[in-house]
Amino acid sequence: MPTVSNDEAATWSEPRELPLSLTGDRHTAKYAPDGRLFVSFRDMASGSPCKGDWVGWVGTFEDIVKGRDGQYRIRLMDNKDD
Q: Which pLDDT value is given to residue 1?
């Protein structure tokens, strides 16, 4: 559940659920040169065709803050050990 701060971490927002497009574990995020975020993680969303697989999500920080799905997701690796 993300929380955000607008005052250099002096205070934080209440936690909120992520959209299903970002539901998972072991998230690692990096900014791309164009300012978008690339987040890689293991997909754990219920009902997802990629559940258990390593996926990449592309979107903006604002997408995360506003609970939007982002621009797109891609399957990076099929986890054969579900």
A: 65
With b for 16 or more beta-carbon neighbours within 10 A and e for fewer, the 21-38 pattern comes to bbebeeeeeeeeeeeebe
Cα distance between the two ends of the chain? 24
pLDDT digits (tens, 9 = 90+) for 34-73: 999 999 999 999 899 999 999 999 999 999 988 899 999 9
Contacts of 17 (CB under 8 A, 6+ apart): 1, 67
- Rounded Cα distance, 79 and 56, in Å: 14
Sequence ranges of the domains in the chain: 20-77
Closest CA to 30 of 18, 42, 21, 38: 38
The mean pLDDT of the chain is: 92
The enclosing H or E element of 65 equals helix 61-65
